[in-house]
Amino acid sequence: MGKNKRTIIDYIYPPRCPICDDILEEGKNIPCLRCRHHIRYITSPRCMKCGKQIEDEYTEYCYDCLKTKHYYTKGIAVWSYQDCIKQSIYNFKYNNKRENSKFYINEILRIYEKQIRQWKADVIIPIPLHRIRERRRGYNQARLIADGISRQLEIPVNNNILIRTINTRPQKELNDKERIKNLAGAFALTDTFKKSHTSHNIKKAILIDDIYTTGATMDICAKLLRESGFEEIYYICVCTGKGY
Ligand SMILES: [Zn+2]
Ligand SMILES: [Zn+2]
Hints:
By secondary structure, the protein is of the alpha/beta class. 39% of the residues lie in helices and 14% in strands. The protein has helices at 8-12, 33-38, 63-67, 83-94, 100-119, 131-137, 141-153, 176-183, 191-196, 216-227; strands at residues 74-80, 123-126, 162-164, 187-189, 204-212, 232-240. β5 (204-212), α10 and β6 form a beta-alpha-beta unit. α5 packs across α7. Residues 17, 19-20, 22, 31-32, 34-35 line the site of one zinc ion (ZN). The site of one zinc ion has 8 residues, from α2.
């Protein structure tokens, strides 16, 4: 009897690679060897602002952060949004592969736990989905990641600060200009939070989302939080686009 003995559950729901979704052979760790070989981690040099990988080690910021004023303080991401991880994220959002979040959380913490702790955040805020979309999907993928990080780092999650007031079109269908237009006014602070905001003493927040592309979502949310008295807004994303 080996310690990798399969249970009945493993036959009904065999463990799958969180990236390509293939069934894993008995005793193999996640992800599968092929995916481990192909997946692209963000490594240094990274942009000091948005965390994207940059090519020139003598610059501190990516091209986008040099020309754009961001409202957030700083952010990090684990992978470049390309190749196999794209499919993994797609399954995570649209094919009910909620269990992929475990792998994402593990990797976020394995690489960035020290840095995240140094932020000394008071609260974690997942980027909200519109309630209609969340009901249809059955979950908010950002919230799954937020909950895992919260448990590990003992920073509370608060889902009652930000809401999505407009059910926007999926960002992936749009170009940069359309993204910003699509998002303007799509988020708001909740009435409950606004009422309490003069007295709240939480000043540092971590926003969580699955993908960072232009940063439009992060900036809109960070701006709202700043206007309500937050001083530092960080973010954690699973994936990010490439910097220049
Ligand atoms: Zn795989
Ligand atoms: Zn940047």
